[in-house]
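Lab notebook, bench 4. Still working through the backlog of constructs that have no structural model yet. Next entry is a single chain of 311 residues. Request: give me the structure tokens for it.
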Amino acid sequence: MDPYTRFESTGLAASKGPAVLILAGIHGDECEPIAAALELIKYLRANDLNKGQVTVVPVANPSAFKSSRREGTDGLDMARVFPGRANGSETERQAHEVHGLIAAADYLVDLHTGGTAMRLAPFSGFFWHTDVGIRERQMEMARVFGLKRIWATDARVEGRSLSSARDCGVPAIYAEMGGGGGFDPDTVAAYLKGCLNVLRWLGIVAGEVEEIQTKQDWIRDEAPESGDLDRLEVSPAEGLFVPSKRVGDVVETGDLIGTVWEIETRREYPVFSNAVGQIFMLRARALVDRNSRLYGIWPLDKFVKLDRGSI
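Model written out:
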């Protein structure tokens, strides 16, 4: 598989449109984004661009993909080492190469799922950028992408594709939904539609932005390291996690999220909600180590109405 496929408009419009980069496969166990990227390549091969350029990377982290793991063979998570290093380990070198693609782009879309371990509610996210113009374009990208929730978070988080985009002045969003093993065609369809909607909004491909079929909720949380999914509530013990809730459930502080059973001692560790809000991320893989991520909640007080007057 080629590392990426690039499409350019022809004729007089060739040099006049924006360059869009679409990433998938930063984590090797997230298959639906890879399938959506391949479907997008097929679509773009069959349809000329009106203007600009589109670069699609189906598998941004080949070593992680080949081992069907979140991390590369060097044990590093590519989504935590951007902008990478030219002379670093395998994952760092790959991140450095992708960083170069980001630096050359005008817009970035990065596609993810919860992988084999986690299950996520559908949402698109972006950094609450200090540049109002970039922030406004990110808001519109997230809106037309079309997922139900849109999450604006702390722009100071490092190591991500979005932090590379931030440092390069490139408007960027990421998308999350599903996961937990198996393969979900609905995720593929939603991501293909979302990417095409962004390209239509930019005038790169023909047609109108497809109507958003769902009411969208906006979540704004600029607390330090908000949006960092490594900082979710974690398991108190090694064992088996038995959930009592589902992704999308609304919970009160102190509600039972699930129970970790420590197999050797038969001891139960109840896991309780730490906030009033909606569960957006929940452990899908039952086997857990101490400190495995278990759940994440969007606090209800962070749901806001965002518009041009509030940016």
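Notes after review: The mean pLDDT is 93. DSSP finds six helices and 17 strands in the chain. Flag for follow-up if needed.
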